[in-house]
User: What shape does this take?
Amino acid sequence: MNNKLSLIALSASILFSSSAMAAGDVWDSATPWGSSTLAQYAEWNTFSSATFDNTPEAGAGTISLSPAGGFLFDNNIYTFNSIPTVTGTLAGTAGLFDVYLRVATQGNPLVSTATLNGVTASSVLAYSAAADLGAGSEQELYWVWKDVIGADLYTFQFQAATAHILIDQVALATVAVAAVPEPSSYAMLALGLGILGAAGRRARKQA
Assistant: This one.
């Protein structure tokens, strides 16, 4: 009964809303990676399936939901009667990266933690406002994992906290960062400079 009422409320709110969904490829918050150049990137602004989508609008990657129980609503995923785990994948390369997961939703909130290849991070709320669709809120969240050693495949997972969440947009991104030398590298550098300095002094004395 509650599910039917939620669906009726959702449908009614759309009829009276002038902007039921966020515009495609438009986020209300600034990019969490700022002006950094992205190494890998995938973004979904619309979805072709409520359970699996491997055709993002930008880049290459996959999105899947388990268990199933949602449906497509205006090319967005509405978790009507399920509390799914959402899995996203992004191909990676060797190197050192800051890795980002960015999600826009409406309705009920997501679980605050997400994982990257099994490593947990907590969400940062970048934007919140009253939902265009019925009750709840419109939110933009992101998660970031710092100094991640590059992998062939990044696997992200985040979860719905309850049913009745509309997943509007998802982005996966990596930003290459400069590797910080190990202390032993600094020691070797200091030793090398010391040897060069000693050789220089010796050459001057001989001259």
Q: What stands out?
A: The mean pLDDT is 83. The radius of gyration is 24 Å.
